[in-house]
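Fold this complex.
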Amino acid sequence: MDKIHAVITGVGGYVPKYILDNDEMSTIVDTSDEWIMERIGVKTRHILKPEEAQGASVSYLMTKAVEELLAKTQVDPDTIEAVICATSTPDYLLPSTASLVIGNLNLKHAFGFDMEAACAGFLYALQMGAGLIESGRYKRIILCGGDMLSAFTNYEDRTTCPIFGDGAGCVLLEGTTEPYGFMDAYLRTDSHPDPLHIAAGGSRKTSSHDSVDAREHFIYQEGRVVFKFAVTNMSDAVEIIAKRNNLTFDDIAWLVPHQANVRIEQAVARRINLPEEKVMINIEHLANTSAGTLPLCLWDYESKLKKGDNLIFTAFGAGFSWGAAYLKWSYDGSKYSK
Ligand code: UT7
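Structure:
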């Protein structure tokens, strides 16, 4: 029997309405548009405010993204068999965000679960979802990646708050015997919790007055340490995946990197000798949406993608968790021009 490949057949996305720009950020913490643009490359970020919707949360962002995906691809919601939600900012510790998205959209025949791998969550979900499709047991599933990091960002800490924004993206994954779609992934995880974590709210330190007073429910990050690991590990992962699939850097149409800092994306591109015009970059207007960055890059660049393009995804996040994946794009994105 011919091998079944998992192909992305559509992309959806959603970013909240409120735009927090660097001028407003400069009224919240001691910073400036100049510093943020030069050191991070972010101009604006979208923030989900309670006023936008009742129950404003990551399931709301993902529901909106999937709604768009279903509308534009015109697939019957009853044919969706699974929903995997990559997020570190679920609505609840339980139940899963996936169960809320499935309920909101009445996906009657889908099962779903959440995956937590910080900013690398969508990359891991791609591997997991591809496995379900390649097994032949599932024909049509949805992968979501997104976060509402504004809920966990300390707006008194100028070293973290300019970086993050809210948003979610999603893809439809289906099976084909044609030689397109998910080809390979190199995924890694090690144990470096100290430089990037949220200390409280989990089983190690449950919520208490003391933890709230100490602002331990917010992201803690040692920026310089994380920066170095991110550049080295993403570059190495991209090199490994390219080499073992016999891809020269001329063969790569697009690098789809996690959007943590434009200097990180540029450093990875430089290290692997890829011209910047082949690198998807949307951090300037969306900031770092954590597990949302990869699908939101596809969402922004979909109209430029052509059938047969070789895409290399790479991501890096807390854990540390990182890796790279190789996917051969399967449709002309211009057919869905917005
Ligand atoms: O997605 C998850 C993974 N996360 C990442 O990949 C993030 C990786 N790290 C980074 O992106 C960068 O390290 C940061 C953006 C977090 C920080 O940039 P940096 O160039 O590494 O700055 P720094 O921490 O070395 O700080 C340089 C200076 C310091 O002042 P002094 O000590 O030199 O006087 C900071 O206090 O910049 C100061 N600074 C700021 N100044 C104005 C830090 N944040 C700000 C700010 N505005 N927002």
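The radius of gyration is 19 Å.
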